[in-house]
């Protein structure tokens, strides 16, 4: 007698509309695929499987003739806060350390998507979550959303951010965001040119879907040419430098300090704060 293995209770590679993790939902709403980050117990902190699932969602929509575009959003008052540096999650079919390479992350795949991708930013958006919003074709943002780039507090030399933000908002504002880790309001992010549109929070779902519909009505061939031109303007970040930095001592200490809710040891004793930075 052949033993039956119950696969629904165990992580497995993506298939169909399932994105490889219980913390992502994929719904079909007419011509759109909607990918929702759904891990409210951890404020949508992203596991490696969640990052990979978003990457898969882009290619899944791209290969499905029944779908015209992809919408990415979050649950509650959080869009995406970046990676789960505490190592939690019940979908650890790959660990964060082994999966931290840039090839497992969705950013370049978002930039290359032939079909339109709109980020409906419903709340807190930082770290890898902000990079997702920046790499999508459009970000439609709730007036309650906030933005932050805390990578340097974690010991991560994020050359993707330094490169892309300098192109989008200029080097002066990039230094402001990255060197201080300050929080931007939705209005400030709009004024800086970091996002496209801010709408009242309750109007976000409808507004984001309307923007996606408008994008999907444009000629796909011509749109791809324009997207390629814009992508060439943004250009490539220092991939080798960033990959090397992910395993450097500062990055390891940054992860450890975050998990232990303290200031990293590189902070002068008189400047250390209670709790994590």
From TrEMBL:
It holds the Pfam family ECH_1. It comes from the Bacteria. It comes from Nocardia carnea. Residues 1-20 are annotated as: Disordered. Keywords: Fatty acid metabolism, Lipid metabolism. Residues 1-10 have a biased composition (Polar residues). It catalyses: a (3S)-3-hydroxyacyl-CoA = a (2E)-enoyl-CoA + H2O; a 4-saturated-(3S)-3-hydroxyacyl-CoA = a (3E)-enoyl-CoA + H2O. InterPro entries: ClpP/crotonase-like_dom_sf, Enoyl-CoA_hyd/isom_CS, Enoyl-CoA_hydra/iso, Enoyl-CoA_Hydratase/Isomerase. Coiled coil: none annotated. This is Enoyl-CoA hydratase/isomerase family protein. The keyword Acetylation does not apply. Could possibly oxidize fatty acids using specific components. Gene3D superfamilies: 2-enoyl-CoA Hydratase, Chain A, domain 1. CDD domains: crotonase-like (cd06558). Belongs to the enoyl-CoA hydratase/isomerase family.
């Amino acid at each position: 007698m052949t033993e039956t293995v119950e696969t629904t209770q165990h992580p497995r590679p993506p298939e169909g509309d399932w994105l490889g993790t219980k913390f992502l939902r994929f719904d079909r709403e007419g011509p759109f695929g909607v990918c929702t980050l759904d891990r409210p117990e951890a404020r949508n902190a992203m596991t490696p499987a969640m990052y990979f699932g978003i990457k898969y969602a882009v290619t899944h929509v791209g290969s499905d003739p029944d779908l015209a575009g992809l919408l990415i959003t979050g649950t509650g008052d959080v869009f995406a806060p970046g990676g789960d540096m505490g190592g939690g999650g019940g979908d650890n079919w790959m660990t964060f350390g082994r999966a931290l390479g840039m090839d497992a992350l969705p950013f370049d795949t978002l930039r290359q998507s032939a079909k339109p991708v709109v980020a409906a930013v419903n709340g807190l958006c930082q770290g890898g979550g902000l990079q997702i919003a920046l790499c999508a074709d459009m970000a439609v943002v709730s007036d309650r959303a906030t933005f932050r780039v805390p990578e340097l507090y974690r010991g991560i030399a994020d050359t993707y951010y330094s490169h892309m933000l300098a192109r989008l908002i200029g080097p002066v504002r990039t230094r402001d965001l990255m060197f201080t880790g300050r929080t931007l309001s939705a209005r400030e992010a709009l004024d800086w040119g970091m996002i496209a549109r801010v709408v009242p929070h309750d109007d976000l779902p409808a507004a984001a879907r309307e923007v996606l519909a408008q994008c999907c009505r444009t000629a796909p061939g011509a749109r791809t040419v324009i997207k390629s031109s814009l992508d060439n303007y943004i250009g490539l970040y220092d991939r080798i430098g960033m990959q090397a930095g992910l395993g450097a001592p500062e990055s390891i200490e940054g992860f450890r300090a975050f998990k232990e809710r303290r200031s990293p040891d590189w902070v002068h004793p008189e400047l250390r704060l209670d709790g994590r930075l």
